[in-house]
Amino acid sequence: MFWRTVLAAALVGSLITLIGCGQTTPESPAPSKPTLATTEASVVEKPNVDETAAPLGYIGSERCQHCHTRQAQAFENTAHQQAIAAVDTSLEPPDGEFFHAKSGRKYRVYRRDGELRHREWLGSDDDSAAIVADYPVKYCVGSGHHSRTYLAEIDGFLVESPITWYASRQAWGVSPGYDLTHPASFERAADLGCLNCHVSQAEAIDNSYHRINFLELGIGCERCHGPGDHHARLHESPKGDHLANSQEIIHPAKLSRTLTEAICSQCHLRGDATVFHPGESPATYRPGRPLNSVRIDYRATNGSHDMTVVGHMEQMWLSRCYTQSTELTCISCHEVHGSTSHDPEAVRQHSRSQCLSCHSSSACGLPMEDSQRLKHQNDCLFCHMPQTETDIPHLAFTHHRIAVHPAELRTTRPDASDFRLEPIADLSNIPTVWQDRAYGLALLECAPKQKDPKLRQALISEGQSVLLGLIQRQSVDGDVLSNVAQGIWRQNPAQSLPLAEEAFRRPETGAGQRANAALMITDSLLTLHRQQAAQQWATQLTQMRRHSSDWALRAETESQPDATMAAWKQAVSIQPFRPDLQRRLMEELQARRLLSDADRVEKQLQTLLKSDPAVP
Fold first, then answer.
1. Phi and psi (nearest 5°) for 501?
2. Higher pLDDT residue, 482 or 54?
3. Are 472 and 432 spatial neighbours (Cβ–Cβ below 8 Å)?
4. Of 296, 322, 324, 463, which residue is least crowded by CB atoms under 10 Å?
5. 262 touches 20 (CB < 8 A)
């Protein structure tokens, strides 16, 4: 262990020398641009687009409708098109209220002044000691066929509401990931990584993490067909010179199977870790490119093939129907423009016809007079692609592994300690240094998800070791720098500081890692007693994301009493269910002799402690 620590320090020291001493004044980077050539990469298959061409412009689905009216009308009511929408109170489920036993919190959905509001509270509803979070919701995520999850815009930041509507139960409940003793309340950021699969185009405002401008809600034409500006201008030109251009727009049905599936895999392939190449992001993928020219997806060997909401691609690839065919793919069964998607009988007939294109009707293992076969009208999907419970409670999705269920899917879960990551796609043409980078970052992404603390620490150590090896090879980018800085930040703030500063400056650094870099810079400067510089960075950090811990750190950097008080109040406002923040605000109020306010906060603190005496 000692020699590894010494080696790490030496490597980091050489990197610091290479990048210089850094800076202590916040500076926004230039707009992010892809930095890795994709003509060599990934690329089991050559892209169907010109990778060297200038970026094409997006024009929005409304303009596409001028010429493609029939397709647009058919697509209008599909789940893709309705993946996110502005809240319309007249279309939302009825008001309601429920109690969440695990956290002891109550939740209410109600309408007021033309808004749909979500309320979360602890304690008596009319008591001044009650802890309350109450906000209007702005966007609904999901078509409502399975569920409806909501986004609130608070202080300009998008956050997920803890309340979701579940269609299967026709009832309100806590959102996925909130069924905890201490759920996140209205603090979970809804960033571009989360929202990219629900919108056609969106952009971060001022490089922030979750202040987002939606250019088009829902999945529109260009998510599958590519940017439409060139196509529209050519076809609107009176000269007719578009006839000479055969690659102006992408037609998924005319692509190879691999490139067609890459379009769907943007959202319907989610392994245990996904790592984007430097300068790439969910927003930079263009239809016609291989997916691994943009990102690498990994699966953990200690997982299972259980049903997941976004595991459709992997499930299909495991199917014998798929492996023994060269043509079966997503659009073999899915009519993307949605002409039959809302008619169950039409869906049954269409899917059955696809099955019978390879299988005879006599291939079914059940006799014609079997009750199940008769009951479900020879529906192949009922047996071979059943509705299956997912990793999210109360949600059942169509299983995309075509099989005899459940026998072929009875899998045993390997020992959790037998953890290895393997890429889902072929990486034979990916440069080794890219593979190493992605593997190291994937290990660090997987580490927090592990329940076993020894395994979690082992993944962190291995991931950091891989990234330090990249430093030795002088192959670094902003995301690598930020993660390496995190590895040494707590033990050696002075050494992590220039790495974090360089990560923040790099234009290719992702929004999440830029925010993490700003956090490390702020904390390191404060630890080094450079309060004025720390305060500047803390201000920038709180403009990038909305998080209670960031505001608590900002309170520590402020030198003016009023600014300190305002920062503590904001921290509590963001996360009123944190006793440590309530206690710190109470102490600040007492120190300033604001005893009435201090007494109110103390009562709220007691409400929190009574609900969970184990909380410090």
1. -65, -40
2. 482
3. no
4. 324
5. no
For the record, the structure tokens of 267 come out as 């959202």
Report pLDDT for 33: 40
SS (H, E, C) 427-462: CCCCCHHHHHHHHHHHHHHHHHHCCCHHHHHHHHHH
Q: What is the pLDDT of residue 11?
A: 52
What is the pLDDT at residue 313? 84
Place of tokens 């080794």: 432
Cα 138 → chain centroid = 19
CA-wise closest residue to 545 among 577, 516, 582: 516
> What CA–CA distances, in Å, run from 351 to 107, 385, 387?
41, 11, 15
- Separation CA 505–CA 36 (nearest Å): 18
Q: Pick the range with the lowest mean pLDDT from 3-7, 68-72, 584-588, 596-600.
A: 3-7
The pLDDT, as a whole number, for residue 9 is 53
Tell me the CB-side half-sphere exposure of residue 515, using CA atoms within 13 A: 19
Angle at 576 between CA 572 and CA 581, to 5 degrees: 50
Residue type (1 letter), 468? L
Q: What residue type is 373 in one-letter code? A: R
- Across residues 564-591, what is the average pLDDT? 96
How many helices (H) and strands (E) in the chain? 23, 16
Span between the terminal Cα atoms of the chain, in Å: 34
What DSSP string describes 132-155?
Answer: EEEEE--EEES-SSSEEEEEEEET
- Contact between 49 and 298 under an 8 Å Cβ cutoff? The reply is no
Task: Flag whether pLDDT at 319 surpasses 90.
Answer: no
3-state secondary structure of 221: coil
Q: Is 130 exposed, middle or buried (0-12, 13-18, 19+ CB in 10 A)?
A: middle
User: Which among 596, 600, 597, 601 has a CA at the least distance from the CA of 584?
Assistant: 601
pLDDT tens sequence across 212-263: 988 889 899 999 999 988 888 888 777 655 544 545 688 998 999 999 999 9
Each residue of 138-166: pLDDT tens digit? 999 987 777 899 999 999 999 999 999 99
Q: Report yes or no: 138 and 195 within 8 Å, Cβ to Cβ.
A: no
How many residues are recorded in the chain?
616
